[in-house]
């Protein structure tokens, strides 16, 4: 399926980052294993990943997101990213990425520099927005650091502030119960992805959809990959150690119940059949 493809659509959920050492926050126990302090407070991921904390307790909110910001900055994309990028560069129509991750790992791995569209449907931790909505737009986190008390996981002042109005900044991430998310960057990314999909479909190009680490708990990536596979009449490779099952008919489903890094390495090592031009 990969060898025959002229275009590759990559879908990535939280499981894609696990092989880079990033937590996937799978269930309350998984979240508390990554952050034991929040278990003591009785806060699970949906409870903490809520914009109300930036108004109610900004030190608590920035303690969590500031720690994640540094975690994602320090992370090194695993070898599977490089393999996907290599395949993309070899395809006539290249590739595009749809991800629910906010960690910026595809950019760090070189996808954006290669001109590959990346749609971060839940936003990015590397962009901030003003709580006062003063009109400044999105603010990059370049040069912004958050000092966090190790024992309490609370941020210490000064907290990130708006360069224009000096109000509090928050990550431009779609949180739970979030009516204030500024989606302008993600909307622009979506337009580029849709244009790529339209070009591939109009050309009748042979495509493959490679979905990595997208679970059933938040099925956004799975739904998008399945719908795109139907639209492009493309096989869907679903890479997931626990939830590689198919969603339904309409496309060729290939279940690969392993982690992303191992599966992509095995695919790269597998002898590929010779390319045969269509009649």
Q: Which helices and strands occur, and which strands form pairs?
A:
Layout: E1 7-12, H1 15-18, H2 27-34, H3 36-41, H4 45-48, H5 52-56, H6 58-74, H7 79-90, E2 95-99, H8 105-108, E3 118-120, E4 123-130, E5 139-140, E6 169-173, H9 184-203, E7 207-212, H10 220-232, E8 236-239, E9 253-256, H11 260-269
Parallel strand pairs: 1-2, 1-7, 2-3, 7-8, 8-9
Antiparallel strand pairs: 4-5, 4-6
Helix pairs in contact: 7-11
Summarize the structure in words.
The protein has 279 residues and is of the alpha/beta class. Helix content is 37%, strand content 15%. It has helices spanning 15-18, 27-34, 36-41, 45-48, 52-56, 58-74, 79-90, 105-108, 184-203, 220-232, 260-269; strands at 7-12, 95-99, 118-120, 123-130, 139-140, 169-173, 207-212, 236-239, 253-256. A 6-stranded parallel sheet has the order 3-2-1-7-8-9, sandwiched between helices. A 3-stranded antiparallel sheet has the order 5-4-6, covered by helices on one side. It is globular, with a radius of gyration of 20 Å.
Task: Count every beta strand, where a strand is a DSSP E run of 2 or more residues.
Answer: 9
As residue ranges, the low-confidence spans are none
Strand content: 15-25%
Major sheet: arrangement of strands: 3-2-1-7-8-9
Backbone CA Rg? 20 Å
Mean pLDDT: 94
How many helices in DSSP terms? 11
Q: Give the overall form.
A: globular
Helix-strand makeup class: alpha/beta
What distance lies between the first and last C-alpha atoms, to the nearest angstrom?
18 Å
Share of helix, binned: 25-40%
Largest sheet: 6 strands, parallel
Order of helices and strands: EHHHHHHHEHEEEEHEHEEH
